[in-house]
Amino acid sequence: MTTAAALTIPFERIADPAVRDIAERIAEGRRLEGRDAAALYRTADLTGLGLVADAVNRARHGDVVTFASNQHINPTNICTLRTTCVFCGYARLPKEAGAYRYTLDQVLEEARTGNQGLTKEFHIVGGLDMKAGLEYYTTMFRALKAELPNVHIKALTAVEIAHIARIEKRSWAEVLTALQAAGLDTMPGGGAETFSAAVREEIANKKLGAADYIGVHRTAHGLGIRSNCTMLYGHVETIQDRVEHLQMLRDLQDETGGFLAFIPLAYHPDDNELGARLGRRGTATSGVADLKMLAVGRLFLDNFAHVKSHWIMVGTALSQIALHYGVNDLEGTVVREKIYHAVGAKTQQAMSLPELLGLIRGAGKVPAERDSFYNVIRTFDDDGEAA
Ligand code: SF4
Questions:
Q1: Are residues 76 and 29 both part of a single domain?
Q2: Which of 164, 158, 156 is nearest to 195 (CA)?
Q3: Pocket flag, ligand 1, residue 75 (CB < 6 Å)
Q4: Residue 17: inside a domain
Q5: For residue range 111-121, what is the model confidence (pLDDT) as tens digits?
Q6: 376: CA distance to ligand 1 center in Å?
Q7: Which range marks the domain in which residue 15 is found?
Q8: Residue 73 and which of 43, 191, 248, 372 are 20 to 30 A apart at CA?
Q9: How many helices (H) and strands (E) does the chain have?
Q10: 90 lines ligand 1 (CB under 6 A)
Q11: 313 lines ligand 1 (CB under 6 A)
Q12: Distances (CA, A) of 52 to 56, 292, 327, 356, 366
């Protein structure tokens, strides 16, 4: 397996002088400024940007691309913000057609049967449901751990944690401590959207603000709960908004070191109010925009070990190409994805192990299964068997 190596940037193949200048500073070990990230978003030299991001990624991870045997469970789509998160097609009001809230038995049934016992991580997120409070989740996590003690529980976005704290009249720390005692291991990064107040006013005006999203993650990190972070892009945000968002994530990572991975999330315009308002349908974002988000994330977030491509949102073909644009981790097996398919994602809802291995090898990379903390736990021989 090819592992981390010295940073080697092919400067002669970078056409844009601005990208070359930034690459030289990276080679000198200097940190990128916000204006550098903006220049990278604006460059027409996608190849040059990719070469730099790939070099930085290879210096950390060699040719290894990791994935997890994970399983998504979305216990409730009932959400108090149903009418104000205008980019969301997943949420329902309590009495609306299609509204659901799983019973404990339904959660356990899905957990047991979803992936023939191969799941090593549950990714559990849902709506802000007034009837899904602390006890709903502590009972769920205890039951999951009792039945499947070796499965990692990555659950509840910062927005959901703040919602539970509000309805229970408890602090974020109290809620997180109770969830941790019940079995919560790490937190996903959803709910960040784009941090800009102006953007939030337009796409999610009642949602937890940027400072509180950061505050919940800071509290979690202080309790030893590591987390991921995201950025929803491709809607109404500007390049400056993206840069400020990345800056806030990098600042918290400097402070706590608690983030595991950065995961850009492409906006899907179908079946949601924002898409209709913007007059957009079908393809969510351009392939160029998707690759730039990942590559700039790799370069600006120099204190993040992992950048993940979410094939559910950008498709498997783009995710494969992204492995040459700074990405070292792919979304895993997933099993049953609901949230992005509710807004028109046409991608697969699950991926088998052979499919994932083929995708990674097809990019000339070396697949490896990881645990939820990104430690490699299994490599594969050419037949896809564990090596
Ligand atoms: S994005 Fe999340 S918080 Fe907003 S309506 Fe959808 S489920 Fe609710």
A1: no
A2: 158
A3: no
A4: yes
A5: 988 766 788 99
A6: 33
A7: 11-59
A8: 248
A9: 15, 10
A10: yes
A11: no
A12: 6, 12, 12, 25, 20
